[in-house]
Amino acid sequence: MRAAVLHEIGQDKLEVLDDVEAVGFGPGRVRIRVRATGLCHSDLSAMSGVLPQPGPFVPGHEGAGEVVEVGEGVRNLKAGDRVVVCWLPACGACPACKRGQTELCLAGFMNAGTPNFKRPAGDVFGFAGTGTFTEEVVVDAGCAVPIPDDVPFDIAALIGCGVTTGLGAALNTADVEAGSSVAVIGCGGVGISAIQGARLKGAAEIVAVDPVASRRESALEFGATRAVSPDELAGAKQEVTAGEGFDYVFEVVGKSATARTAYENTRRGGTLVIVGAGAMDDFLQLNMFELFFDEKRILPSMYGGGDVLRSYERTIALWRAGRIDLAGLITHRVPLADINEALDQMRSGTALRTCIEI
Ligand SMILES: [Zn+2]
Ligand SMILES: [Zn+2]
């Protein structure tokens, strides 16, 4: 079958091959025919080595499709079911799951060292234990989350990562207070989802910050009240907050430099939410005086910072009621054969989300 493979970490292009096989089917496992997958920035970060990932590998972790077959012992799924691929499945039994913080369950990472695919040339891993730039993938049953029939595959794919991450950061982690001032630094698919979350919570002002003009325009359509380039942020802070700083700042880039900017633009006693996925060797510097004296709350948000399945359900309910726009996040569509175009669109900042149709 066909899949897009990165041969070596650090390369910037994928090769679409037709000699790839999805492996690992058996008890407790599910074979999925992938129908749509989004390109998330984390895929690029894994390709470049910013996020740890063994290679060669099939990127993609934001996907949706149909169940082809289920292994022994899988009771909640059957062939033909529509599912979202969840790269962070909940085991249901660990301390994090029992507390309802399923986004912190580590069960999904236990398979990270096991290849999901193979080629005549050898083993191939799947990104984050999934790998959705492929016709078929085999995952644990917990990674296949059933969705209602009225949710199209392209919309469902977005829920698998970007929308859950951004929306959850505003709804779960920050729990934005009505009437507050918000800045969102980094306005790709995740940042736009954070903007939609802040709007849902009744933020008075939402300032979108991004160097790319088309993203700033999109941010205004999705609920930002202003959109500025990074060098205009100081002026916006002055105008919106009289220089005090924002009640909430969301860092959706994953770099220490933007996190530092976000910290400085958060008001004293305000909340900085770290959403971007960054590197292990990139350190955020804070001095011990400002840390205690300014009493800014720093809240990291992993995959929406709340119960994952509950987040999916809530997103579907909000989408169905027309309270959030998910279709509008898909700015580009390409077939799997043109996957490298999708990478270029993401790198240049022209795409909020590219849907790869398989
Ligand atoms: Zn668990
Ligand atoms: Zn992602």
Overview of this protein structure:
The chain is α/β, with parallel strands linked by helices and 358 residues long. It folds into two domains: 3-161 and 306-357, Medium-chain alcohol dehydrogenases, catalytic domain (Quinone Oxidoreductase, Chain A, domain 1, Alpha-Beta Complex), CATH 3.90.180; 163-300, Rossmann fold (3-Layer(aba) Sandwich), CATH 3.40.50. Helix content is 28%, strand content 26%. The protein contains eleven helices and 19 strands. Strands 4, 6, 7, 10, 11, 18 and 19 form a seven-stranded mixed β-sheet that branches. A six-stranded parallel β-sheet has the order 14-13-12-15-16-17, with helices on both faces. Strand 18, helix 11 and strand 19 (353-357) form a beta-alpha-beta unit. Helix 4 (162-174) packs parallel to helix 5 (189-200) and helix 4 (162-174) crosses helix 10. One zinc ion (ZN) is lined by residues 40, 42, 61-62, 161-162.
